[in-house]
Specification:
This protein is of the alpha/beta class and 418 residues long. It folds into two domains: 88 residues, no CATH class; 291 residues, Rossmann fold (3-Layer(aba) Sandwich), CATH 3.40.50. The chain has a seven-stranded mixed beta sheet with strand order 7-6-5-8-9-11-10, sandwiched between helices. The longest helix has 20 residues.
Length: 418
Amino acid sequence: MNTPFLKVLRRLVQKGNLKVILSSGEKAVLGDGSGLPVTLRTLDAAAEKAILLDPGMKFGEMYVEGRLLIDEGNIFDMIAMMKANGLENAATVSNTVIALLRVAQQQLKSRLPGNRNQRNVAHHYDLDGKLFDLFLDHDWQYSCAYFDPPGITLDEAQLAKKRHIAAKLLLEPGQRVLEVGSGWGGMAMYLAEMAGVDVTGITLSEEQLKVSRDRAGKRGLAGSVRFEMQDYRTMQGRPFDRIVSVGMFEHVGMANYGNFFRKMSSLLAPGGIMLLHAIGQATKPWATNPWIEKYIFPGGYMPALSEVVPAVEKARLMIRDIEILPMHYAHTLRAWREKFTARKDEAIRLYDEKFYRMWEFYLAASETAFLYDNLLIFQIQLSHELGSIPYTRTYIGEREAALKELERKRPPLDPVDF
C-alpha cells in the first residue's frame, strides 16, 4: 500500500535519512541515507490526511497534540530535513489552494481597522515568567543576540547586542532616550548605566511592565529609568534625543508602517538618532507562517526591506545605515532551544506536555526559518539630518571598545524576579 501521505513524503524527501511508520503499520525508508537518521510515526489516519491537506498548519498541530511523533532524532531534525529538500516538492493542488486562501485572509486582516496590539502582546508576553527563565539569558533579552566574536556564550552575545546598539545610538550623558517595546527592562538599564542617559521604556505587556519596574528599582535606577504602559501611537510630549526599538516592529503590521514611522519622526528631536532592530525577509513574504501566527505571535509579520523603506521615506526620515545580521538569530534560537529542551520536565510541570511540545516546535521551526527561509535581522539607523551621524562606520567599533571597558565596572545583574 502506498497512501497519498506517503507518496508526498517520497516526493519531498530526496536527501536525508527518514524512516516513516504510518498508523496503518506500513513502513518506509526515504532519502539517500545521508545525515542524521530521523524516524517519524503517525498515530491515526486522520492526522495524516490533515497534514496532507494543510501542512503549514496541521504538521505543527499534529505534533503538539501527540498524533505525530519523532521516535528518533527530534522535531528540529525533521523540519530541517524537510526544508533542506524544498517544501515546494510537497505541494498539491489542495494544499496550494488552502495556502493561497490563507495569504489572502492574512492580507485582508492586516488592513482592517482596530487596535489588537495589547491583546496580541498579552497572548505571548504575559505568560508565566518561569517559562522565559527556562531558556533566556541572565538579562532576559528576548531578541536576536550578536555573536561577535563567533563562539561566545548566549549571555556574552546578548551583552554584545546591547553594546552594538548603544554604539550606533551615539549616546551622550543627559540625553533623553525612548525605548519602544522595552521588554523586561534590560536594554533600558544598560543604556542608562553605560551612557548616563535618561530612558523611558514603553510596553503593552503588564507582566513585562511589572518585572522591569521592579528590576530598575532594585538597581537604584528609578530616577533615570522609567517604564510605562503606553501605545506608541498615542505617545505625546517633548521629542527624544534617541529612540531605540528592538524586536517590536514585527508586531506593528504591514498596514501600519506609515503611521509607525510618522510617529517616530515626530518623537525624534532635530539632530536625534533612531535605531530599529527587527526580523525581516530577503523577499516579500506576503503572509506569516499560519501555525506561528495562530499559536505564538498573532498579528505578527516579518517584512522585506522593500516594504519598510517607502514608509521611512514618506515620514521624511533619512536612512543612515542598514546592517544585515543573517545567521545570528539561528545561533540565538539554537541556544534557546537547547536550554529549553534540557529543562523539559520543568516546562511540563509549569504548564503541561502539550504546551512543552508547542514551544519546542516554535523554537525549532523558527531556527530552521533562519537557516533555510532567508529570514534575517536588519538594523536600520535613522535621523532627520546628515550631520547627526559620522560619515564612516569606524565610530561603532571605537564606541564598542569603550563600552566594553565600562562593563567591567558595572555591578553584576541580579536574577530576574517573577
